[in-house]
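User:
I would dearly like some help making sense of a protein record. Take your time, and here it is.
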Amino acid sequence: MDSLLIHIENIDRMVNQWASTIHTPLLDKIMFLATSAGEFLPMTILSILIFLLLILLKRRNFIAPYFVAIPGGFGLMNLLKYLFGRERPPDAAFHVTGYSFPSGHAMMSTIILLFILVAFTENIKKTLLRIIFFLLIAGAILLISFSRIYFNVHWLSDVIGGIVLGIIWLGVSLSLK
């Protein structure tokens, strides 16, 4: 187990070192927009809009999963951060507080954006538009998640862990449907 952790830490360091070499002014702006989109306030506003759309579109079968997935996911993420207590990478591009694992941006954007995909895809009738919708959601999750490595506020394993935990938690939440 210790050798596995050492390998993960080595990969984490290599990926963060690589990410530090690809900065450009344009990419910095794109990544700043992505990381800002994954912050608490924008995700909270999006979550409220999701709830209102569920009511408006009479998607009542998604109400219980919504409350387990989104507020419950936020609580789970904070509990896991406390339990793991993993320190963030040194030399972050900006000051961030709290523990590193799992990445809250990765976990919550995965939960919230995939919830949108599951809850509202059936409202899109054309196959091409469904594919575009899926690609936009997947792209947003990946961009928000990668921005955390780009700015050196998370390790790769924090981000992968956040995405995987987000998918698992959403699956558990949707089982209440």
User: Anything to note?
Assistant: The two ends are 38 Å apart (CA to CA). Residues 2-174 form one domain. Residues 127-150 form the longest helix (24 residues). The chain has one domain: 2-174.
